[in-house]
Specification:
Elements: H1 2-13, H2 22-32, H3 36-48, H4 52-64, H5 72-84, H6 88-100, H7 108-119, H8 124-136, H9 144-156, H10 160-172, H11 180-192, H12 196-208, H13 216-227, H14 232-244, H15 252-264, H16 268-280, H17 288-300, H18 304-316, H19 324-335, H20 339-346, H21 353-356, H22 360-368, H23 372-384, H24 392-404, H25 408-420, H26 428-439, H27 444-456, H28 464-475, H29 480-492, H30 500-516, H31 522-531, H32 538-550
Helix pairs in contact: 1-4, 2-3, 3-4, 4-5, 5-6, 6-7, 7-8, 8-9, 9-10, 10-11, 11-12, 12-13, 13-14, 14-15, 15-16, 16-17, 17-18, 18-19, 22-23, 23-24, 24-25, 25-26, 26-27, 27-28, 28-29, 29-30, 29-32, 30-31, 30-32
Length: about 550
């Protein structure tokens, strides 16, 4: 308010005054020499003589407590006298005090009345405040179109806040058609006047390429201008720019610096990212305890990635005491946000999530959010009756959703349903289609089943050579059932030259793998199995193989 007073006083000194204006001029001189008490006395004398400018200045002194005891009610009295005489600034200030309830009861309708009177005289800030009143429905019916009209009038007179709000209106399509190009123009005008939110929003527009050509350098420039003014989100985003080298030379030191500034202002994303830097030892010394501290801060603010990472820390006992109950708590909180469960899947945690999230509601939430792995696992739950009432139709529904998103396990399971005629009419061709999709992704069970279909001529022309190809692919992943079937193919010479020694090796290997279920150690157990092949037990092995050949080959599962 003091700045306004000085400007107004200077202007008044240039105007011709009536013969009794000497008190006003004396007040001006005393005010300039910082004798506020003396200035107030002369302004009061002049004000009592009806000089609107003196009445306005006296109101300002009462509002600021300059030369007189601060008294908002007295300020309102003198604003009112000046305003009734047509003093535009007094009318505007009278609108402000009514809007803020300062010296009078808060009354938005009265505020709008006085803004209108000032606006009719071309007072730009009054026009802008009228726009705010229409936008917020304060003292008038909410009307975004009218608000935008006011913003335009004020913005053209250089009111920076009006320019910023006009940018917002165009960006959000509020009161005008959404137009990011126009939003960018008005943000830029406001940003150049130092409006920090406009600088931040302009950074966002350049980063996202909305209404402008995507330009990370420009984004970084505007984020920096807002960040040095203390804008927390701009600091966080500037940290990301330095962290990833977007529009600036990658600099983890700068990233950590800006993350910390934003984190200290309680921006959860920055707190989480700072935790990542401590966990990975990027620029800062690796410190799991410090990482856990920042993740905890972000997690408490509801940031899902931090909740997930904090849960992992509790599982591993890194930076915190190992605590599975707390891990469960944070996994659940992340899962409540739907997409967070998908993040857990994406990281392929070695944890059995069902142990933590054993009730089906969490799987349902993630599946309904569109996460293929959750849909696939929910299908398994319905198929087996695990945590839900067993329901093959529901299993088929969720497997199809996941399969259509390319989930190999669901594709394979859908193939099994077509093979067995579960839910769907038995259709071997459809089964082959789904097995092939999963098999091409390297899914061992699907490779086995596709091999069986070629072996038996189900849904495709019988082709032992192709059957062997798919059995081989699954067998090389250590899948015991594929190794078993492949051993029979070698024993009988189906699709491959007959080789009973190799058949024996594969059968033995399948037996070992099946028994201990350590398929990932396939090379190791292959060597073990090969070393155990002895001439004196080959007859026994061949006898067993003959029995297997007589029986039905292992099929779908």
């Amino acid at each position: 308010m003091k700045k306004i007073v000085n400007i107004v006083l200077t202007c008044f000194a240039l105007l011709a005054l009536p013969t009794f204006a000497g008190h006003f001029e004396d007040g001006m001189k005393l005010y300039a020499s910082k004798d506020y008490t003396g200035a107030a006395e002369f302004f009061k004398k002049s004000a009592e003589q009806g000089i609107a400018k003196a009445q306005y200045n006296l109101a300002i002194m009462y509002a600021n407590g300059q030369g007189v005891a601060q008294d908002y009610q007295q300020a309102v009295t003198w604003y009112h006298r000046a305003a009734e005489q047509g003093h535009a600034q007094a009318q505007y200030n009278l609108g402000l005090v009514h809007a803020n309830g300062q010296g009078v009861a808060q009354d938005y309708q009265q505020a709008v009345t006085w803004y209108h009177r000032a606006a009719e005289q071309g007072h730009a800030k009054a026009v802008y405040n009228l726009g705010l009143a229409h936008a917020n429905g304060q003292g008038v019916t909410q009307d975004y179109w009218e608000a935008v009209d006011c913003y335009y009038k004020a913005a053209r007179q250089g009111i920076a806040s009006a320019q910023y709000n006009l940018g917002l209106a165009h960006a959000n399509g509020q009161g005008v058609s959404q137009d990011y190009q126009k939003a960018a123009i008005w943000y830029q005008k406001a940003a150049k006047q130092g409006i920090v939110n406009a600088q931040y929003n302009l950074g966002l527009i350049y980063a996202n390429g909305q209404g402008v050509t995507q330009d990370y350098q420009q984004a970084a420039i505007w984020y920096h201008k807002a960040a040095i003014q203390g804008h927390a989100k701009a600091q966080s985003n500037l940290g990301i720019m330095y962290d990833k080298g977007l529009g600036v030379i990658q600099d983890h030191r700068q990233a950590a610096n800006w993350y910390r500034k934003a984190a200290e202002q309680k921006i959860a994303k920055a707190q989480s990212n700072l935790g990542v830097m401590y966990a990975n030892g990027q620029w800062v010394t690796q410190d799991f305890k410090e990482a856990a501290i920042w993740w905890h801060k972000a997690a408490k603010r509801g940031y899902a990635k931090a909740q997930l990472n904090l849960g992992i820390m509790y599982v591993k006992g890194q930076g915190v005491t190992q605590d599975f109950q707390k891990a469960t708590l944070w996994f659940r909180r992340a899962a409540e946000q739907k997409h967070a469960l998908g993040l857990m899947y994406a990281k392929d945690l070695v944890i059995t999530l069902v142990d933590y999230l054993h009730d089906a509601i969490w799987w349902h939430k993630a599946a309904e959010a569109g996460y293929a792995k959750a849909q696939s696992n929910l299908g398994v739950m319905y198929a087996t009756g695990q945590g839900v009432i067993q329901d093959d139709q529901q299993a088929a529904i969720w497997w199809r959703k996941a399969a259509e998103q390319g989930n190999a396990k669901a594709q394979s399971n859908l193939g099994v349903m077509y093979t067995k005629g579960q839910v769907f009419k038995q259709d071997h061709q459809q089964a082959v289609t789904w097995y092939r999709k999963a098999a091409k992704q390297g899914y061992a069970k699907a490779q086995l089943n596709l091999g069986v279909m070629h072996d038996k001529g189900l849904g495709v022309k019988q082709d032992y050579s192709r059957a062997v190809t798919w059995y081989h692919m699954a067998a090389e992943q250590g899948y015991a059932k594929a190794q078993d079937n492949l051993s029979i193919m070698y024993y009988e010479g189906l699709g491959v030259p007959q080789d009973r020694i190799k058949a024996h090796i594969l059968w033995k290997l399948a037996s070992v793998n099946s028994e201990i279920n350590l398929f990932k150690n396939f090379p190791k157990y292959r060597r073990v199995a090969e070393n155990k092949v002895e001439t004196n037990n080959r007859n026994m092995v061949e006898s067993k193989l003959t029995e297997k050949v007589a029986s039905k080959k292992i099929g779908t599962n």
